[in-house]
Amino acid sequence: MSTPEKNRYTAEELAEFKQLILQKLEEAEKEYHRLKQSLDELVVAAEDQYRTGEYMSNEYSEKVQIERLLQHTVKYIDALKRALIRIENGTYGICKVTGKLIPKERLLAVPVAETLVEVKQKRPR
Fold first, then answer.
1. Would you say 66 and 39 are in contact if contact means Cβ atoms under 8 Å apart?
2. Nearest Cα to 66, choosing from 46, 86, 87, 48?
3. Smallest Cα–Cα separation from 100: which of 118, 76, 82?
4. Complete DSSP assignment for 52-91
5. Considering the entire predicted model, what is its pTM?
6. Rounded to whole angstroms, what are the CA distances from 52 to 42, 45, 100, 118?
7. Is residue 40 part of a domain?
8. How far is CA 69 from CA 2, 36, 74, 112, in A?
9. What is the pLDDT of residues 66-123, one digit of tens each?
10. 25 with 119: CB under 8 angstroms?
11. Angle 57-88/11-52 helices, nearest 10 degrees?
């Protein structure tokens, strides 16, 4: 008789994932504040340059790049917070498409993963 396939992570494993996610969340929030400060400084500098007629297009492209990074960071923070909710309600690590357990290695590499790699690869981009 074979052993049944594991379909949930233990409380201890979930606690490990939670620590990892909290660490990633702290790092992401620091990055968000760093990017926000850079953007604010760039906007002030651009306003000064505009007033003096020295506005350069490279500041604009830098602003756009920082805004993209900020947007990505906000999405990542939201995904980390959703992962914490899944830990609290006991659904963390369970593929939302197949209902199968996502391998621990994947979750350690991508703590916000909600699906198996196979499912993600089949989805159109």
1. yes
2. 46
3. 118
4. HT---HHHHHHHHHHHHHHHHHHHHHHHHHHHHHHHHTT-
5. 0.82
6. 15, 11, 61, 55
7. yes
8. 48, 10, 9, 18
9. 999 999 999 999 999 999 999 999 999 999 999 999 999 999 999 999 999 988 888 7
10. no
11. 160
Question: d(Cα 120, Cα 125) in Å, to the nearest integer?
Answer: 9
Q: Which tokens in the block code for residue 29?
A: 């929030």
> What is the extent of the structural domain holding 46?
11-92
Query: For 9-64, how does the pLDDT look when each residue is reduced to its tens digit (9 = 90+)?
Result: 999 999 999 999 999 999 999 999 999 999 998 888 776 666 555 556 667 788 88
Residue 111's nearest CA partner among 24, 49, 3 is 24
Domain count, the chain: 1
In a domain, 42, yes or no: yes
In a domain, residue 31? The reply is: yes
Tokens standing for residue 12: 């201890």
In a domain, 26, yes or no: yes
Q: How many CB atoms lie within 10 A of CB 17?
A: 20
